[in-house]
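Anyone up for a design puzzle?
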């Protein structure tokens, strides 16, 4: 029987998290104040760190040792979170697109440089020599 570990479960008190991340507890408090790594709060407002938080603390430490400022680290983490959110959204949209009936393919058009309008089938592109402007028209705007 395999035991599953919840990577996001806030189980470590600050002293344990600091030891796991090879840092001083005061450093963890500073990172929390700066918004770099924000642990969960237990009743009584004590910090509780998850394994994901500890991994993030190690990443902050690595970037810091490479000479990145704390503000720089904060921006890097924000951008990484933004990229992850965008990747999740692309996956959601891809699944949604795959579920749509093929009849919607006729709603995609290309306008050529000569002014011609061509209905595009999904996955088809205008001939290599033609330059085309793609126009998208959402449902309900007809």
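Challenge accepted. My sequence:
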């Amino acid at each position: 029987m395999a035991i599953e570990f919840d990577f996001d479960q806030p189980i470590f008190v600050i002293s344990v998290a600091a030891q796991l991340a090879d840092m001083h507890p005061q450093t963890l408090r500073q990172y929390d104040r700066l918004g770099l790594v924000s642990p969960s709060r237990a009743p009584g407002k004590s910090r509780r760190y998850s394994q994901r938080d500890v991994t993030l603390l190690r990443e902050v430490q690595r970037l810091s040792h490479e000479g990145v400022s704390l503000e720089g680290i904060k921006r890097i983490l924000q951008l990484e979170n933004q990229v992850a959110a965008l990747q999740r959204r692309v996956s959601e949209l891809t699944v949604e697109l795959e579920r749509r009936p093929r009849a919607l393919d006729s709603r995609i058009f290309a306008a050529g440089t000569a002014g011609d309008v061509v209905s595009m089938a999904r996955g088809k592109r205008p001939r290599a020599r033609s330059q085309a402007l793609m126009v998208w028209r959402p449902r309900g705007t007809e």
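A detail worth pointing out: The helical segments are 14-21, 25-34, 51-65, 70-99.
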